[in-house]
Amino acid sequence: MDKDTFRTFGHRFVDWIADYMEGLEHLPVAPSIRPGDIRSRLPKEAPIQGEDMEKIFDDFRTLILPGMTHWQHPSWFAYFPANNSPPSVLAEILTAGMGAQCMIWQTSPAAEELEVVTLDWLRGMLGLPEDMTGVIQDSASSATLAALLTAREKATGYTANTSGIQTPLVVYLSEEAHSSVEKGVKIAGYGNRNLRRIPTDDSFAMIPEELERAVEKDRQSGFSPCCVVATVGTTSSSAIDPLKEIAEICRRRQLWLHVDAAYAGTAAILPEKRWILDGVEGADSFVFNPHKWMLTNFDCSAYFVREPSALIRTFEIHPEYLKTGVDAQVKNFRDWGIPLGRRFRALKLWFVLRSYGIEGIQQMVRRHIEWAGLFSGHIKDSPHFELMAPVPLSLVCFRLNDGRPEEELDELNQTLLERLNASGKLLMTQTRLRGQYVLRLSIGARLTETRHVEEAWQLIDAFARDLITTGA
Ligand SMILES: Cc1ncc(COP(=O)(O)O)c(C=O)c1O
C-alpha cells in the first residue's frame, strides 16, 4: 500500500469508527446468523494477488460487520462489559502504527516506563497497598495463572520449576469463582483433584470458617494447603468475598492470597465502594481488568504483586540473546508473565486516564451502579419477577417467577431470554445460582444511558407478560 492510500483510508477508517459509535444504537446488539454463515461467504484460499483496499473495506462492511456482536452497544447487558472509548481507540491506532514489541526495556524504553507510571496511578486510584507493584497482563486468566505459578514456587522453595510438584499442593476458591482459576490450576500442575470449592453464604460470598475448616482438614490428611483465590465481584452474581477474614486465615496459615477482581476492581475508585477491597492489604497478588469497566480496549489486565522478586524468580530465563547492559537498572517485563513478546498496552491506559481523569471514570461507574439500583427496583416492585442475588455493583440477577412449579421456571426463563436476545434490542446472558437458572443484566457500556436501562426493563416486562398470558 502506498503512503497516500494509507493516509486516505486512515482518515476514512477513523470517520467510519466515529459513525459506528454514533449509530450503534440502531444496530441489533447481536447478529441473527447461524454458525458457518460468514465462513460460507468467504473464499477458501488467500488471494494470489493483492487486492484493492476499497474492495477489502467494502467486504468488511458487507460480510464481516453483519456477523459481529456489538459489545459497545448501549443496550449491551451481557456477560460483563468490555467497554472501550475514543481515547483508547486512538491510542491503539498509534500503538499499531509504531508496531513496537515491548518485551524488555531496551526494545521499548518508554513503554516500560509508562507501564510503571500508569500502574502506579492505578494502584493509587484503587487504594491498593503502596508496596504492591503492577504489571500489565493480557487477561485476568493469565494473571491468575501467574499467581498460581508463583504460589507454587514459593510453597516449594522454588523447586517445582526444577523437580515438578512432589507434594499435593492445594488451592482454595469459592464455589462461585471464575472458571479461569480452575484452568490455571490445571495448567500450573496442581491437578483438579487438589482444588477445593469453599461453600458460600446467602450473598454467594465465600464463608471464611468453611475455608479454615477445609485447610485444617487438608493439613491433617497430609495435603499441603498452598493458595487461596478470593473473588471480588464473582461472575455469576458479583458477590464480594470477605477479604479481611480470608487474609487473616492466609496470614496465620501461611497461604498465598490472590484476589481476582477482574470486573469489580474498577468500582474501588469510588470512595463509597472502596469497601469491596477492605483486607486487600493482606493479599500477595491482585488482578483487575481495565479492559472490562475502565474504558480501555481489550486487552489490558492490571496485575499487582507484593513481592516482584518471587514472580520474577518463577518466570525468569536468561538466554544470551535477551541480555542487555541495563538489566540491573530496569524492569524487563518479559519475566513478569508468560509470553515473551508484549504489546504496548500502557499507552491506551495512559490516554484513558488522562482523557477522562479519575472523576470522569468515577462518574461513569457511579451511573452504572445507580442504574443497576433503578433496574433492581423495578424487579422488586414487579409481582412476577424476583431478585436472585444482592446488587452491590452494576449486575442484577433476577428471574421470572409467575408461581408455576419450580421445575418449570428454568425453561420459562430460558425462553424469555431467547426471545429477548432474538429481538436484537438488547443482549443479556444467564447463569445458575444454587442450581436455579438466573438472568443477568450487567450494566457497563460507555454509551448506555438511563433510557436504555428503562427500555430494557419495559421490553423484559412486556415479553414476560406475553409469555405468562400465552402460557408458554
Ligand atoms: C471474576 C472473573 N475473573 C476472571 C475473568 C476472566 O477474565 P479474562 O477474560 O481477562 O481472562 C472474568 C471474566 O469475566 C471474571 O468475571
Please provide a brief summary of the model.
The chain has 472 residues and is an alpha/beta fold. It folds into 2 domains: 20-84 and 357-472, Alpha-Beta Complex (Aspartate Aminotransferase, domain 1), CATH 3.90.1150.170; 100-343, 3-Layer(aba) Sandwich (Aspartate Aminotransferase, domain 2).
Describe the structure in your own words:
- This protein is 43% helix and 13% strand.
- The protein has 472 residues and is an alpha/beta fold.
- It has two domains: 20-84 and 357-472, Aspartate Aminotransferase, domain 1; 100-343, Aspartate Aminotransferase, domain 2, CATH 3.40.640.
- The strands form two sheets. It has a seven-stranded mixed beta sheet with strand order 2-8-7-6-5-3-4, sandwiched between helices. The chain has a five-stranded mixed beta sheet with strand order 1-11-12-10-9.
- Strand 5, helix 9 and strand 6 form a beta-alpha-beta unit.
Helix proportion range: 40-55%
What is the CATH architecture term of the largest domain?
A: 3-Layer(aba) Sandwich
Shape by Cα distribution: globular
The ordered H/E elements are HHEHHEHHEHEHEHEEHEHHEEHEEH
* Biggest sheet statistics: 7 strands, mixed
CATH fold category name of the largest domain: Aspartate Aminotransferase, domain 2
CATH class of the largest domain: Alpha Beta
Radius of gyration: 24 Å
Q: Number of helical segments?
A: 14
Q: Could you tell me which ligands this complex binds, including any ions or cofactors?
A: pyridoxal-5'-phosphate
Spell out the key features of this protein.
single chain, 472 residues, alpha/beta, Aspartate Aminotransferase, domain 1, Aspartate Aminotransferase, domain 2, 2 domains, 7-stranded mixed sheet, 5-stranded mixed sheet, 12 strands, 13% strand, globular, binds pyridoxal-5'-phosphate
